[in-house]
Amino acid sequence: MEKSLESEWIRKRARRLGFELCGVAPAEKFPELDGFADWLARGYGGEMRYLGDARRADLQSVLPGAKSVIVCALNYNTPLPHSTQAFAEGAENEPRGWISRYAWGQDYHAVIGAKLEELCGALRERFAAPFETRWYVDTGPVHERALAHHAGLGWIGKNTLLLNEEVGSYFFLGVILTTLELAPSLEGEAPPPDLCGNCRLCLDACPTGALTEAYVMDARRCISYLTIELRGAIPEELRAPMGRHVFGCDICQDVCPYNRRAPVDALPAFAPRSWPKKSLPAAAPDESLFLPRLEWLASLSEEEFRELFRGSPIRRSKWRGLLRNVGNALGNAGAQADEETRARIRARLEMLAQSGEELVADSARWALGRLGDMSS
Ligand code: SF4
Ligand code: SF4
Fold first, then answer.
1. Is 239 found in the same domain as 346?
2. What residues flank ligand 1, with Cβ below 6 Å?
3. In a domain, 278, yes or no
4. Who has the most CB within 10 Å: 141, 228, 269, 311?
């Protein structure tokens, strides 16, 4: 069969598995990889030492004999408001936090991994000659966004994410490296052009100044890194600008014009996890990961955290990390709370300040200091 027909067959197969986009890139070194080494050398990767894995520089060291990379994108956009629209104006008596859209439902690693495994199985049925495959979702020593760009899925925007003109950026990327020689999706064509133009909405909206310039993000200032990857205390000067974010941040995607009409047909697995009242202790209200109540999150024991977030991406921050973030967010929420709510927040923070976990106690003390400032 003609190689280009093979690639088209793969694309259709991926679509049947629910992937919004799919393309094939040659397993080559792309110029973006040089920029990545420079980014790391500037320390912008913070404590994410795994990003320095030397295999990232060469796909051949990840899968010897690799000839092609199949890149797939799976939508996680559910029809609920953006972070930039979701918070009520004025005083609140139920302060709420923000969890990144991608983390509302099931752990995407498992959901996409199962689909990529299925696609690999389909390849094995289709191609008789022996070949190897290796797939990754986010955790492998590969530069998914650069590969996606060279597979024709979109361009890397000023917010450093992969953008597609039709689909926006609310999607996960998964890649399959293979020793099969497949026709690249862009055979003879240039990768998709950069359509950011003069726009700089993401740069202006980033509350912590993490987008230091167009196309450059200092992860050490990014709320996603600070709330999920960072294990220690959050630098004090960033705690107030972080607002109510307790896990991840969507702001630079939520303001992007290409996400205004992004399709909202994510799998039910990515809809916000919720707990009906009857599954929680008596008198508890229904709880959800879409705009979760901060006081509820602050009340979780380590055991409850483990139980409630089984199979959820939230597990990555660990209990102490989530409570650190929640303490921070409660301090910031106090700024918009009425007197009665502020008193309740203060009582909750005083409990957190007694925590045996210094990380949690430190964030609660900082938040109490912020509330103190408010009443003085
Ligand atoms: S995710 Fe949030 S903090 Fe990070 S660069 Fe985007 S807007 Fe800034
Ligand atoms: S907000 Fe504007 S500049 Fe930023 S990624 Fe989107 S289109 Fe590009």
1. yes
2. 159, 206, 208, 210-211, 217, 222-224, 249, 251-252
3. yes
4. 228
Flag whether 47 is in a domain.
yes
pLDDT in tens, 240-288: 999 999 999 999 999 999 999 899 989 999 999 998 877 776 666 789 9
CA of 156 to the centre of ligand 1 (A): 15
Q: Which residue's C-alpha comes closest to atom 6 of ligand 1?
A: 252
Nearest protein CA to atom 1 of ligand 2, as residue? 256
Contact 182, 3 (CB under 8 A): yes
- Please tell me if the CB atom of residue 162 comes closer than 6 angstroms to any atom of ligand 2: no
Same domain for 24 and 157, yes or no, is: yes
Residue nearest to ligand 2 atom 8, measured at CA: 196
Q: Is 268 exposed, middle or buried (0-12, 13-18, 19+ CB in 10 A)?
A: exposed
Q: Do residues 207 and 120 both lie within one domain?
A: no
Ligand nearest to the CA of 219: 1
Is the domain of 14 the same as that of 161? Answer: yes
Indicate yes or no: pTM above 0.85: yes
Domain that includes residue 352, residue range: 201-371
Q: Examine residue 11 and state whether it is found in any structural domain, yes or no.
A: yes
Q: Helix axis angle, 318-333 relative to 358-375, nearest 10°? A: 0
159 shares a domain with 75: yes
- Atom from ligand 2 closest to the CA of residue 205: 1
- Pairwise CA distance, residues 151 & 196, whole Å: 19
In a domain, 90, yes or no: no
Distance, CA of 278 to chain centre: 31
